[in-house]
Amino acid sequence: MAMAAHEIEAMIKQALPDATVEIDDLAGDGDHYAARVQSAAFQGLSRVQQHQLVYQALQGKMGGELHALALQTSPKEKD
Amino acid sequence: MSDTKAEIQNIVDNNDVVLFMKGNRDMPQCGFSSTVVQVLTHLEVEFKDVNVLETDELRQGIKEFSNWPTIPQLYIKGEFIGGCDIVREMFQDGELLDMLKAKGLAA
Q: Are strands B27-28 and B79-82 parallel, antiparallel or unpaired?
C-alpha cells in the first residue's frame, strides 16, 4: 500500500520537470509524508490549482495508496 | 448530473460555509478533518458539517465534484477553498479570516 519517498518525487518530477521537491517521511511508516514543491508551472495559479497539478502528477495515488501527503506548493521564478 | 452531484451542489448552494469531513464536528474521525473544524471553530464561523462516511456515494462523489482526491474539503459561498493544508496555510496567513470578513461571514 505504501509508497517510497523517491517514487513520489519521481512522479512529481516526471510531470513537472523543473520542480524542486523535498519530501519528509513524517511517521517513518512510508505512508505519511509532507512535500514541498516549487515549480514555475505554479505561477499565476491558485493554491487549489497548484495542488491539483501535483495530485495529477501522482496519477490517482493520492487518497489511495498514499494516505497522507501534506502539501506545500510555491511558484518558482523562471530562469 | 447524477443524483449525488445534484445533492452536493444543493448543499454547497444553500450553505455559506460547508465542510465535507470524516465524522462530524463533535467527533471528527480523522486528524485532518479535526484540524479544519478547529480552525473554523476558532474563527467562530458558522458552518455546516457533512459526514462523507455516511454513504459511499457521497465519499466518492465529493472527490469527483471538486476534482480533489482527499477529505476534508471546505467550501465558502459555493467556492472550493481547499483541503486541510490550504486551510491551515490560509489561517496562519490571516487570509482565511480576511476572506470570511470580506464575505460577511466573520466579525
A: unpaired
For the segment B65-76, the average pLDDT, to the nearest whole number, is: 95
- pLDDT tier at A10 (50, 70, 90 boundaries)? very high
ipTM score = 0.82
pTM for the model: 0.89
A62 touches chain B (CB under 8 A): yes
Q: What is the CATH number that goes with domain B3-102?
A: 3.40.30.10
Count of all residues that appear for chain A in the document: 79
To the nearest whole number, what is the mean pLDDT of chain A? 90
- The CA distance from B23 to the nearest CA of chain A, in Å, is 17
- From the number of C-beta atoms within 10 Å of its C-beta (0-12, 13-18, 19+), residue A44 rates as exposed
Contact between residue B21 and residue B33 where contact means Cβ atoms under 8 Å apart: yes
Domains and CATH numbers, chain A: 5-75 (3.30.300.90)
CA distance A23 to B84: 18
Radius of gyration (Cα) for chain A, nearest Å?
Answer: 12
Give pLDDT tens digits for B13-51: 999 999 999 999 999 999 999 999 999 999 999 999 999
Q: Determine the residue among B60, B73, B74, B85 to mutate to test chain A binding: the one whose Cβ has the most chain A Cβ atoms within 10 Å.
A: B85
Show the CA angle centred on residue B49, arms to residues B44 and B55, nearest 5°.
170
What are the beta bridge partners of residue B27?
B24
